[in-house]
Amino acid sequence: MLSEYKEVFLEELEEQLQLMDDVILQLEQEGETESVVQSLFRAAHTLKGSSAAMGYEEMKQLTHEMEHLLDQVRSKELSITGLLIDLLFQSLDCLKELKKDIIRDDASVTDISGCVRDLQAFAEPPKEWVHHEIEDLTKPELSLDTTLKIREAEEHGFIVSWITVLISPECFIKGARLYMIYTNLCEWGDVLYSVPDIEGMEEQEDSMFEIRFLYAGTQSSQELHDLVAALSEVIGVKVESLSTEMAVSINKENEKQERIVNEDHTHKAKSKAQSIRVSVERLDHLMNLVGELVIDHTRIHQVERSQRGRFTDDSVNDLSQISDHLSRIISELQESVMKARMLPIEQLFNRFPRMIRDLTRDLGKDIELIIGGKETELDRTLIEEIADPLIHLIRNAVDHGIELPEKREMSGKPRKGTLSIRAAHEDNQVVIYVEDNGAGIDPDKMRDSALSKGIISPEEAVLLNDREAIHLIFRPGFSTASRVSDVSGRGVGMDIVRSHIEKINGLIDIETGLGQGTCFKIRLPLTLAIIIGLLVKLNDQTFIIPMSNIAEIVRITHDDIETVRGQQVILLRNQIIPIVWLHDHFNMPRRGQKKSHIQLVIVGSAEKRLALAVDELIGNQEIVIKSLGPYVGKVDSVAGSTILGDGKVALIVEVSGIINQR
Amino acid sequence: MGQEQYIEFAIEEEYYAIHIQDIHEIIKIQDITQIPNVTSYVEGVINLRGKIVPVISLRKFFNLEERDHSRTTRIIVVHHLEDTVGIIVDRVNKVTMFSDIQSPPERIGGIDGNYFVGIGLTNGGLVAILKLNEILLREQE
């Protein structure tokens, strides 16, 4: 039965761990503030509760210790020190390990005893109130009846105390929880009075998380405190024994419960209610259906046009009206479904502060991380796909890009390096920048390195301009790191980064200035399922080149073509670009070459451009990518297929496939 | 055994059959989009009501002489594992049943006997029954 909840639990766990990561970092950078400690405490507490409910003993134990420690921070018994931050991070890592165990269903692989010991050693012996800071609340006014009851109880030798109980705001049925606390108290002794009245509780159960009982029993304050604190979902207890004198004292102001509620929290609870979790599979299915609609619509449009040529009556007008309306609806539908699949890139970016912190520590660097455009949304599959390449780029920037503080000082730069990671929407694409103000890339070094590794021949090295030399970094087998560090240079080179990005129809570009820094620019499509494609003709067959791969389109004459060592090239704004006849690449005869002009589609990223020669340009259109199916499997330089307006199948050219063969 | 139904079709004057259960539908020849750089007998892909379906030429598969498609040319769309594949044949004859099926000889008219389940006997003569698993098996490299 538990496994049904496991997924939900894991999701929550992920959220809370991320939250803790952020908050601890914040603590480290900005120092201790009440709200930050509070939210960290709350996260630990929530995890403790849910892991206990799921029966993950280790996690419960660990979070319990964390919670305990944090409580002391909160009550100012401990202050935030570097040591404590490290300890918290260490515990967090331990929790992450435990999470992996849970995912694998592999209990207790991770040893938490060391971590727990450290936490315990750090914590001071517990004080009177274990959990939540409860303010010295004013006592409610007591009726004569209650005062009499207190007197009576005291005469019988009972100790009368005010017990203030705080329950977790995460608790689902607060009223019921409070009622259970009440029944527990009734078992141990007598509840003389409660604020608010326990009987009228149902009505206001949602806003309640604090209750005060006037309790008469034999237990001492400490005993009572421990008993109540052990009840589930109780996050704060305060016991004050009461003399009759005090009880009679009157104070009218008793509505302070709201104080402890963090505004932020209620806000969160509200927005939760308005969203539902939908499996990605369902969204994918929706997207497929929209894709079908897009195809059918282009077909209707085509039919409409051919009818218009033949008939002129009203029915054709009707058809075109319907078609126009349909097109509006479909594009709106498509956009909504696409939006439903989009997530802010924040999800990914939030991982970086912690990563940078650890990296800078290990490498002895001083780096300020600037993150921008967190709210930029893109398809969730893209976020997953882009994570690894980005992490690699960042590692590189920290390891090889930004120099050690001393070295920076010597070259007249501020000791602290800057790494900026930004995302933004730019003409229907998402652009991610990873920019550092480090040493930059030295083209001469690149040439030498590539030469010594046998990636290029000496003749080639001479021919390379600086820009091309820098782009050598994307060649397989290239790594500029002279030493293999733990951070980068683990055999995953920039070539993998590039091929990964190209796999998702993205482009990567690099700009660098020696001594000034390096900027990697990644362009990604907004979505994977529906793309804008340029329709081109080779002989009679239509092919599609994804628009995201296209840099520009030029029309040339045969005279513009030059030949360099047997390779046809075109000189475009001082850049030599090799020409590839798509016909040749696809083993098709080159017909229709009597034309005076040749259409060239320039594709690829800055470092590796190719001019694809085609017979004719038809235009661009939204296309739905369909796989060729398992029987055909992966075809060289073909990314998939789509159905055109006339019902014919057209193949989508895989540009990276063609480039990589060069 | 004798009650099972097959679709009988022809290439040249040779008769072949496919078990009716494997057949999804039989359609007229359509616009086929060629795929570059694939095995020669894969003719290309067609649009079957919005689904991309690869089609193969049985002629090419059996290394028979190529011929232009005619009025009688058909595509037999079959289910294969999770996939759908179209097979181009010269003409489709009829639904048939066999009184007896004999195991295939090593070679049938120059074609490897492994591609057949057996030889079915009908009043009209001998019909080679295709073993789809063998024919549609492709090296997935």
From TrEMBL, chain A:
UniProt keyword list: ATP-binding, Chemotaxis, Cytoplasm, Kinase, Nucleotide-binding, Phosphoprotein, Transferase, Two-component regulatory system
Family annotation (Pfam families): CheW, H-kinase_dim, HATPase_c, Hpt, P2
Residue ranges of every copy of the HPt domain listed in the record: 1-102
Modified-residue entries (Phosphohistidine), positions: 45
Major site of localization recorded for this protein: cytoplasm
EC number(s) stated in the UniProt entry for this protein: 2.7.13.3
GO cellular component, one term: cytoplasm
PROSITE patterns registered for this protein in UniProt: CHEW, HIS_KIN, HPT
Cell compartments where the protein resides: Cytoplasm
Domain (CheW-like) ranges: 530-662
Catalysis performed (reactions): ATP + protein L-histidine = ADP + protein N-phospho-L-histidine
Functional note: Involved in the transmission of sensory signals from the chemoreceptors to the flagellar motors. CheA is autophosphorylated; it can transfer its phosphate group to either CheB or CheY.
Protein name stated in the entry: Chemotaxis protein CheA
